[in-house]
Design a protein that fits this description.
It contains four helices and four strands. It has 121 residues and is α/β, with parallel strands linked by helices. The protein has one domain: TIM Barrel.
Length: 121
């Protein structure tokens, strides 16, 4: 993070795109270093998520991964968790929208219930 500051950068995205590699202790250290160097943080959730899969286990796993990303992002004081919510598959547009809306509401409720300051993007 000091190097980012040294070269004039003030933001960094923590990449979990191929999987979550950090725990809470690591997230806390990342946050401390970012704060010391005035670095704005965001987190990028894994690419493999699908919140509107026809398979409930995939939806549940995807939701769990996003919640873990949100928790770690909050610990490191990141501002946003960037994610790609999924794809239609065989669903029609209306059904996909309804499913996505419902799952995102559940995630939004979890953000509020946990008093996390981070936002989805």
């Amino acid at each position: 993070m000091a190097y980012l500051k040294q070269i004039g950068l003030n933001a960094m995205e923590i990449e979990f795109v191929r999987g979550i590699w950090a725990n809470e202790k690591t997230a806390e250290k990342i946050g401390e270093k970012a704060e010391e160097n005035n670095i704005f943080l965001s987190v990028h959730a894994p690419y493999y998520l699908n919140l509107i899969s026809e398979k409930k286990n995939i939806v549940n796993k995807s939701k769990s991964v996003i919640l873990t990303c949100l928790k770690l992002a909050d610990v490191m004081k990141a501002h946003y968790v960037v994610f790609h919510p999924g794809f239609y598959g065989k669903l029609d547009k209306k059904e996909a929208y309804t499913r996505m809306k419902n799952v995102l509401q559940e995630i939004s409720d979890a953000i509020a219930d946990n008093s996390w300051r981070v936002k989805l993007a």
